[in-house]
Amino acid sequence: WYDDIFSSFPSLPEGGSRQQGIAPVRLLDTREGAGSVGPGKTIDLQVAGVKGIPANATAVALNVTVTGPTSPGYLTVFPAGSGRPDASNLNFQTGQTVPNMVIAKVGAGGKVSIFNSHGSSHVIVDATAYFEPVESPLGGGELNATEPARVLDTREGVGARTGKVGAGETVTVKVTGEGGVPTMNVDSVVLNVTATDPTSLGYVT
Q1: Are 143 and 17 contacting, i.e. CB atoms less than 8 angstroms apart?
Q2: Most C-beta atoms within 10 A of its C-beta, which of 16, 104, 111, 155?
Q3: Global pTM?
Q4: Integer Cα distance of 73 and 154 in angstroms
Q5: CA distance linking residue 119 with residue 96, whole number of Å
């Protein structure tokens, strides 16, 4: 399997952001005019300053759905204006409809970029919350959104040995000091964890 890290929650305030929930609002539906996203294509989506999300939002919580893909592939959501990371937010097979929750850092112009790896896919994006700068310490954890970064891939020996994780086996993954996460004062992280090519039914904890 592999882990991609997207944000961290410092245990002490360090200029992070506070979450503000909103009623779910649709920001994108390529079935309605824009057309499907082709293979290897990236689209930019305005998220800050629209539909109740303030212009100073630092990150957004999105429900991203792919539907009707013509081949297996994945989507990556990342800050507009940044280089596309080697990480995936959502993985799919031909013809599937697959949603996933994504916390994305807001990039240039208040936008996020969405990359489709293979085939043509329709993409739907709903916002459920945003993160705004913290003006003063309020206690608890503050979110610091990062650009997506891969911290584990057992297919390639990233973050652990190369090879599948066996039944009942545990793999330890270092997250502090990796992928833009600070080395200190971090008590939790947001991860996208993916299992691929399993040999039987099971689960990952």
Answers
A1: yes
A2: 104
A3: 0.74
A4: 19
A5: 12
